[in-house]
Amino acid sequence: MDFSTWFTFTIMATLIVMSPGPNGVIVLKTLGQYGYRPALAVILGLFCATFAHGLFVLFGLSALLIYIPQAFLTIKILGAIYLCYLGLKSLKQFFNAQKPPISDSISDKTKVSVTNPNDTIARLRSFMKVGLLTQLLNPKVSALYLAVIPSFVDFTAATATVDTLILTLTHASIVGSWFVLLATVSVKLLPYFKDTSVGRWMNGLAGAVMLYFSAMLLTFETKQP
Predict the structure, then answer these.
(1) Positive or negative torsion for Cα 70, 153, 17, 174
(2) Which DSSP symbol is given to 188?
(3) pLDDT tens column, 122-150
(4) pTM score of the predicted model
(5) Rounded to whole angstroms, how far apart are CA atoms 37 and 20?
(6) Phi, psi at residue 189, to the nearest 5°?
(7) Which of 2, 119, 191, 211 could be cross-linked to 87 through a Cys-Cys bond (beta carbons 3.0 to 4.6 Å apart)?
């Protein structure tokens, strides 16, 4: 694979990652409600899941998912249910009369404050799982990989495996870099969202958007061979 091929893929992948989607909603919601470090944990989950999708393509698992209607339908439903769960969870916080407290200091929003380091690690792992599951349970990513990777990799060449891994790592790195940038810039706006009513409406908006993406995922179809 030459540089021009890699560069073309990088530009295309960047535009796809930057387009609005559930990943961005989850990152921003986590950032606004829990702080910067939990948002980074979510982004790490997105990175790992994106790389996993590339490995699925490499070992043919994505092809099985797409070519077997029952498997594709199962993953699609699971993904939609998970997004629906996240959306309903946010809406519950929106409608809850006991509004979630928002810290008075920006420093409290950028760290997990617990006395036990093990609790900190466990909590960050839970946020990482949110990003991991959101990306893994999205069959659109598998379909995208199956549609895109063959256009950039010659699977008859001896370097096919290396080329696939390079493109996968590139895509995952773009995912991580873009959302870290988004979180880093957005964290500067946190002082403007100290008002509890603003935080409550942010939960409501995030919940509605997640339900929308859940419905869109259920309507997603891929062409069968």
Answers:
(1) positive
(2) G
(3) 888 899 998 898 888 877 777 777 777 76
(4) 0.72
(5) 22
(6) -90, -5
(7) 211
